[in-house]
Amino acid sequence: MKKILLSLFTAGLLAFASSSALAGDTAPKSVIHVVTVSWKSGTTPEQIQAALDGVQALPSKFKGITRVWTKTLKAQGGKSHAIVMEFADEAALKDYSGSDAQKEWYKVYTNIRESSTTFDITN
Known about the structure:
Blueprint: H1 2-25, E1 31-39, H2 45-61, E2 65-69, E3 81-87, H3 90-96, H4 100-109, E4 113-121
Antiparallel strand pairs: 1-3, 1-4, 2-3
Helix pairs in contact: 2-4
């Protein structure tokens, strides 16, 4: 009987531990930087693509950026594109502001941006 109770207790602990670990996986400490964009009138598809390509290159130019998404499937509120950057943590996002990587990308991006809205999200 003791062996059965010990086995059940151990199984319960393992189940609880694995569910806690899974919950931790859904709450990362990285920061998601979401930018919704509308472009200036007369902006060409090539200019937009150059701006998006510039974002895609940022992880190789700034070590705090871990992932980038640029393929907008749906946009609302007068915006045509969304750009998402994942930063390793809040410090990386802070360090990116004014960095050489940001300044270089802004040379392509800000001249064609009509307006943008930014959301920074973490757990």
